[in-house]
Amino acid sequence: MTRAARDRDPLVTVEDIRQVAMSLPRTTEAVVRDRVKFRVGRIVYVALSRDELTMGCGFPREQRAALVAAEPEKFFMPIPSEMRYQWIEVRLTAIDVGEMRELVAGAWSMCVPKRLAVEHLGREPR
Question: What is the rounded distance in angstroms from the CA atom of residue 110 to the CA atom of residue 26?
């Protein structure tokens, strides 16, 4: 990533993410070690970095390597200790609100009963 890309304002803000996440049933927000996290029960499905430039979110483990390989400017693998989880990291400066909405809704759908995801999203969860 170029310095200019790193220094520009993110296209997606924490408030954008909060608006989407809090519209999803059973979601709660928490601040843990200075990081904003959204969860269903005890399951975290979205977590922002402390500097709020990256977002980690639930994502199918078997699909993440292909996504990172296809779009390395947007996505990257979680830290080694989190590789066992169904999780991916995304640079907020590289995505738009529509992409964020899809990622957040997809991560949420992994945490709730399939029936609720279909009811709320109008489609099968990923």
Answer: 13
**Could you tell me if residue 120 is inside a domain?**
no
Residue 123 lies in a domain: no
pLDDT, tens only, 34-61: 999 999 999 999 999 999 999 999 999 9
Q: Is residue 18 part of a domain?
A: yes
Which CATH number characterizes residue 101's domain?
Answer: 3.90.1150.30
Strands laid side by side in the 54-58 sheet:
27-32, 35-40, 43-48, 54-58, 87-91, 75-76
Which range marks the domain in which residue 81 is found? 3-114
- Residue 126 inside a domain? The answer is no
Q: Which helix (H) or strand (E) covers residue 29, if one does?
A: strand 27-32
CA within 13 Å, CB half, 109: 20
Which residues of the chain are under the pLDDT cut of 70? 1-10, 124-126
User: Phi first, then psi: what are they for 89, rounded to 5°?
Assistant: -115, 145
